[in-house]
Amino acid sequence: xxxxxxxxxxxxxxxxxxxxxxxxxxxxxxxxxxxxxxxxxxxxxxxxxxxxxxxxxxxxxxxxxxxxxxxxxxxxxxxxxxxxxxxxxxxxxxxxxxxxxxxxxxxxxxxxxxxxxxxxxxxxxxxxxxxxxxxxxxxxxxxxxxxxxxxxxxxxxxxxxxxxxxxxxxxxxxxxxxxxxxxxxxxxxxxxxxxxxxxxxxxxxxxxxxxxxxxxxxxxxxxxxxxxxxxxxxxxxxxxxxxxxxxxxxxxxxxxxxxxxxxxxxxxxxxxxxxxxxxxxxxxxxxxxxxxxxxxxxxxxxxxxxxxxxxxxxxxxxxxxxxxxxxxxxxxxxxxxxxxxxxxxxxxxxxxxxxxxxxxxxxxxxxxxxxxx
Amino acid sequence: xxxxxxxxxxxxxxxxxxxxxxxxxxxxxxxxxxxxxxxxxxxxxxxxxxxxxxxxxxxxxxxxxxxxxxxxxxxxxxxxxxxxxxxxxxxxxxxxxxxxxxxxxxxxxxxxxxxxxxxxxxxxxxxxxxxxxxxxxxxxxxxxxxxxxxxxxxxxxxxxxxxxxxxxxxxxxxxxxxxxxxxxxxxxxxxxxxxxxxxxxxxxxxxxxxxxxxxxxxxxxxxxxxxxxxxxxxxxxxxxxxxxxxxxxxxxxxxxxxxxxxxxxxxxxxxxxxxxxxxxxxxxxxxxxxxxxxxxxxxxxxxxxxxxxxxxxxxxxxxxxxxxxxxxxxxxxxxxxxxxxxxxxxxxxxxxxxxxxxxxxxxxxxxxxxxxxxxxxxxxxxxxxxxxxxxxxxxxxxx
Lengths: 373, 399
Ligand SMILES: Cc1cc2nc3c(=O)[nH]c(=O)nc-3n(C[C@H](O)[C@H](O)[C@H](O)COP(=O)(O)OP(=O)(O)OC[C@H]3O[C@@H](n4cnc5c(N)ncnc54)[C@H](O)[C@@H]3O)c2cc1C
What we know:
The structure holds two protein chains of two kinds.
Chain A: H1 7-23, H2 26-34, H3 41-49, H4 68-81, H5 87-101, H6 104-115, E1 121-124, E2 140-144, E3 147-158, E4 165-171, E5 182-188, E6 194-200, E7 206-216, E8 220-221, H7 228-263, E9 265-266, E10 269-270, H8 275-303, H9 310-335, H10 345-358, H11 363-372
Parallel strand pairs in A: 1-4
Antiparallel strand pairs in A: 2-3, 3-7, 4-5, 5-8, 6-7, 9-10
Helix pairs in contact in A: 1-4, 4-7, 5-6, 5-7, 7-8, 7-9, 7-10, 8-9, 9-10, 9-11
Chain B: H1 7-23, H2 26-33, H3 40-53, H4 71-84, H5 91-104, H6 107-118, E1 124-127, E2 143-147, E3 150-158, E4 168-174, E5 186-192, E6 198-204, E7 210-223, H7 234-246, H8 252-268, E8 270-271, E9 274-275, H9 280-308, H10 320-339, H11 363-366, H12 368-374, H13 385-396
Parallel strand pairs in B: 1-4
Antiparallel strand pairs in B: 2-3, 3-7, 4-5, 6-7, 8-9
Bound molecules: flavin-adenine dinucleotide.
Flavin-adenine dinucleotide sits between chains B (125-129, 134-135, 159-161, 212, 377, 380-381, 384, 386-387, 390) and A (264, 266-267, 271, 274, 276-277, 333-334, 336-337, 340).
């Protein structure tokens, strides 16, 4: 057993960490959020240049290895800066699906462009009625003279507004809730039959609701009617990514709160001198440490099992959700009113820690899945 | 012991129901039910309706236009209002400064201020907290120095809720010798905000709203007739006010209604082929909060019953704020959970009356995270829950 990072991994961690520290401070992030696109194209090219967009892919696919531990390392650092660039939507989810389910022609077409930072993508899977059930797909793909057309709505599609190409989960056969009968399609996001309403989420990430109306596709991705295993797989991978992000964000939330309690004075002494708050800070610390541990467990187990271990992943999401909840709430409470201001990063960490709890399956959903597996 | 309403109380309940049915504007009720914020105009409209009915000053003495209601009547009114979507009145005038004025003010002050507060002609805000004085309120540093028949006020108040809409601010200021002991140098001053020497700057909170402000006083001149009571007694007056603030602070009626609506929402919210309420874990979480709320309701009723039989409220009353806010926040969290993915979009523009774009998700869902974020304040303001806990451990448990 050895939990130390390899020299390559150490290098990645150092370089992402340096980027967050030097080029992604809170004010810079604020400017990025206020910009027209809501993320920085310049950063995106920088990610490509440094090879970070190659990280989720195997060497065979032209990437840099793509282990879960690698992903964990990058995302934990991203979490510290609350990075809003669409790394998960484009590289982890969309690129991941293509790597997993695509044929050689598709891989050759899309993956190099993703890794070069030239293509923005989004994976449209959730629907207004589906909640977290990935098999619940109403959006239909109907075959007409050998060509499929898609109709239906997709909800809160991450990066959906800025994507050039979408991957859409659509029903090609069976009933809304059937596990079989789901297929993946490439869709030109700019096709006139695609209506997109974009917005920022409360955590600053860009998303869109998307409506398809007899929209032609750019081709089937993977096996017809049998896309659910790949979807499950890739949502699990994305879940690991946000778990790592949460661990990074929790660390900063705890650091900031600890610093604050050492300087803020009330009743003539620092508030950190009140034992009532000391214990609360220790609880936050324990939650963060437990979260970090279970994240490592999940990443290692997934890596030793070909990239998927649903039970380990759900354990991590459940436990990290619980930690994120406590750490986020306490960070605000212990700051007092100032913690509720838009001006301070603590509130934004709290918001990201909140959405992470409800993204890709809530804490309860993953607890149940863990119990069932 | 008796749990039932008397015949008169039942009549009163019907009267309230009928009033709400006839007089509560539908738009205001709908917004309140959806936990959306009301505009200043809407708040005025509602309070003026209450005033016309003689029901604006619920806790006020009758001679100043109060209702003279018994605790049971207040309980009935709060519950019927919550059920019908009758919004809470803005507390700063009616519930916070008015009790100080009618208890400690002189006749001239009562005549000058109380009628406009009752009629919602004048808006007030609360100028207690300062950047350096939060939980330790007695350390306020804003000064009021007497010069002839005026005070010259300098300093900064912060977290001033709705200060941008207020005409007047009631402040804790420091008068007298700087060397005086903290609490003995504090005075209670009413200040007209229509003064170029007072500037109000917005503070945006994590829900993206402008609700709180920083208020700067730069040699603002305030007539000495605006001082309440005596110099140096402000702390005592403020404490009385804080106990008024505690009335209804548990917000049981509103939480009850929010839970009823949450359950209705869970019954219709799809969860794949099922409904959310069929999810045993979710249903259990809702039940747990509901059970906690039942206990709190009876804690509040014990307090009310003590007051109505002429006794002082017992130690149970001190937990109202802590438990009440925990429950508010737990309910908010369940709404976020119920909303699922649609808790995430930040689309506040679609809650506006004149919005005509494409709405994203149901309002109840897209408003849920904002509400959850905003209500983090509930355990911070009005004496944080940590401070409340300290008070209980000292004053109730004698630790
Ligand atoms: C949305 C909002 C609206 C507000 N509106 C108004 C308003 O209209 N007018 C107004 O005057 N004020 C208002 N306030 C201010 C509010 O009253 C203060 O935030 C509150 O008193 C706490 O002070 P603080 O924020 O400075 O936190 P601090 O006092 O700095 O406290 C920071 C943390 O330390 C804890 N703490 C402090 N002392 C102790 C102790 N002895 N033991 C254990 N823990 C302790 C606190 O509980 C808190 O968790 C508002 C606040 C908010 C968030």
